[in-house]
Design a protein that fits this description.
- It is a single chain.
- The chain is mostly helical.
- The protein folds into two domains: 94 residues, no CATH class; 157 residues, Four Helix Bundle (Hemerythrin (Met), subunit A), CATH 1.20.120.
- Helix content is 82%, strand content 0%.
- The chain contains twelve helices and no strands.
- The longest helix has 35 residues.
- The two termini are 13 Å apart.
Amino acid sequence: MKKLFLILSLITITVRILGQETLKRQIDYLGCTTAFIEYKNEIAESYYLTRTWVFIDKKSDTPEKIRLKEFCRTGENRLDEMLKLYGYLLDTVDIVKLLKVKEDVEKLIEKQKYIMNALRSFESYDDPLIVFDVIPPVEYGGTVEKLKDTIILELDKLIQKIQLEYVDYIGRLNTNQSSAEPLKTKKIKQLLDLMNVSAEVKELLTISNKSGLSRNYLEKDIYEILLQKYDKYYTIGEIDDLIAFYKTKTGKKVVKVSKKMLVETLSEIVNSLK
């Protein structure tokens, strides 16, 4: 019996734990939504800080000025970083729109830098010509405000779409998880067949032929245990992911190599216990 328990333990260890893509996708949906909301808020804040720059404390290191300078320094590259992280969640139309948003952000930052530079000296704060030149376009429907409104509108549309897609994705996961048992069981059996589990169990039991129990019963028993474990720990969507993997060239090699490795290991362990 000790050898049988050892075999079962090693079988459990060799279960292929892949299925992490579903969890990663859920986390990325939430991360993507949060990132775009934060970016939209930074766009809005940068606009208001730019509009009131002339009225902010004349010191160059106030918190407001530091935040605006930092946005102007990094804002152009932030969308590239988000696309790199979450681009796989977006379709081609969304990506094209985001590239247009990036162009508008670059224009917005260029305008913001102009205002900041125009008011960089103490004298500028007291120059009515500069104040008149800067404030009206910004405060009363000028280029900066129009750019800000356009960017925020497009980001709002994208955020709403991502949120709806996330809700739909979770809904499909829940539907899969509550699907009829026969369908899920059928898929798990398909996966176990691709993993060549039955043949592995037979070979392992051949090594441990001194267990004293019926070999046919043990094969069925172990197979049923694996069915239950896959049903417990994997959704039907994750089972589909595993099936797709084990149909690949690499997946087939994993089955072939892991079987040899496990049989060789068990043979050595069983022989050492004699």
